[in-house]
């Protein structure tokens, strides 16, 4: 499942071109078609196609794990969820619908002989087309890189929650962007057990955790994300996992055996020596 670094990698490719793709900003939308109705959360597909046609893509951005395309008047938001992916490809053959692949769910036709295709085998991904992006993002917590998250502010937020660290960090209303991989990696880097109560952390531990979260995410972005249990292509962060899916292997810091447990139905990987329960 794509997390912040994988989404950021896709955002940068769509915004700047590269990775074999074309840049989207500045292009006018010439039409749209939804192939699987439930992919489009709002509005209905007819209104979507009518209203989006003629609008200009201003840029491509990310909030947490959401992709945002601010347009001339509305905003297109995309959440990839389990298996969603986006590709830009030539459309000149027969326009919107020709030569689509199985599991393609929506197509946006672009000026310059291109189309943006949303591909999603498991159908959990969603697209919103709205006047105000905050109508979708209102409950989203701050981005881990947000400057409002000073160590003091992060500490205050942790102690106000009184929850176990792992489920709290996965909660997108607390902080937006972390998933199972980068949470396990950050907790290991910070030397914090996944089940420690968030209100037990002192300011120093909160700062260490915040720095660790940013470091593992930056490393993930630098490596174009992780290509694991997902169709996502091209990332290689999976080759530098410290604990994630390394159960039974030696901890890269101390050599003790990495353990696995289940926390809130999520497989959780940790080193009992580096991350004592306290
Ligand atoms: Zn260790």
Summarize the structure.
Helix content is 26%, strand content 20%. The chain is built from seven helices and eleven strands.
Defining traits:
20% strand; 5-stranded mixed beta sheet; 4-stranded antiparallel beta sheet; 7 helices; 26% helix; single chain; elongated; binds zinc ion; alpha+beta; 278 residues
C-alpha end-to-end distance: 31 Å
Helix % is 25-40%
Task: Give the total of beta strands.
Answer: 11
What characterizes the major β-sheet? Answer: 5 strands, mixed
Q: What integer is the average pLDDT? A: 93
Q: Runs with pLDDT <50, length 5+?
A: none
Shape: elongated
Helical/strand content category: alpha+beta
Order of helices and strands: HEEHEEEEEEEHHHHHEE
Strand order of the largest sheet: 2-9-5-4-3
Residue fraction in strands:
15-25%
Query: Count the helices. How many?
Result: 7
Computed Rg: 20 Å
Tell me what you see in this structure.
By secondary structure, this protein is of the alpha+beta class. Helix content is 26%, strand content 20%. It is built from 7 helices and 11 strands. The strands form 3 sheets. A 5-stranded mixed beta sheet has the order 2-9-5-4-3. A 4-stranded antiparallel beta sheet has the order 1-7-8-6. It is elongated and about 60 Å long. The chain starts with a helix and ends in an 8-residue tail after the last strand. The model has no long low-confidence stretch (mean pLDDT 93). Bound molecules: zinc ion. Zinc ion binds next to loops.
């Amino acid at each position: 499942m794509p997390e912040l670094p994988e989404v950021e990698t896709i955002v940068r490719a769509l915004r700047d071109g590269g990775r074999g793709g074309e840049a989207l900003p500045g292009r006018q939308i010439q039409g749209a078609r939804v192939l699987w109705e439930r992919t489009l959360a709002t509005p209905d597909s007819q209104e979507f196609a009518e209203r989006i046609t003629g609008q200009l893509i201003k840029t491509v951005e990310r909030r947490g794990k959401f992709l945002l395309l601010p347009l001339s008047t509305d905003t297109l938001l995309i959440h990839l969820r389990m298996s969603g992916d986006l590709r830009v490809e030539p459309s000149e053959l027969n326009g919107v619908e020709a030569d689509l692949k199985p599991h393609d769910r929506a197509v946006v036709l672009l000026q310059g002989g291109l189309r943006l295709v949303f591909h999603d085998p498991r159908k959990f991904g969603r697209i919103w087309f709205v006047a105000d992006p905050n109508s979708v993002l209102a409950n989203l917590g701050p981005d881990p890189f947000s400057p409002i998250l000073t160590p003091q502010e992060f500490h205050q937020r942790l102690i106000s929650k009184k929850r176990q660290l792992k489920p709290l960090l996965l909660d997108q209303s607390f902080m937006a962007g972390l998933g199972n991989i980068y949470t396990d990696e950050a907790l290991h880097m910070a030397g914090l057990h996944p089940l420690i109560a968030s209100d037990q952390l002192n300011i120093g531990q909160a700062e260490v955790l915040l720095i660790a979260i940013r470091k593992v995410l930056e490393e993930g972005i630098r490596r174009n994300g992780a290509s694991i249990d997902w169709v996502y292509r091209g990332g290689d962060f999976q080759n530098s996992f410290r604990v994630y899916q390394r159960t039974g292997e030696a901890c890269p810091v101390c050599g003790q055996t990495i353990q696995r447990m289940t926390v809130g139905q999520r497989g959780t990987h940790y080193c009992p020596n580096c991350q004592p329960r306290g």
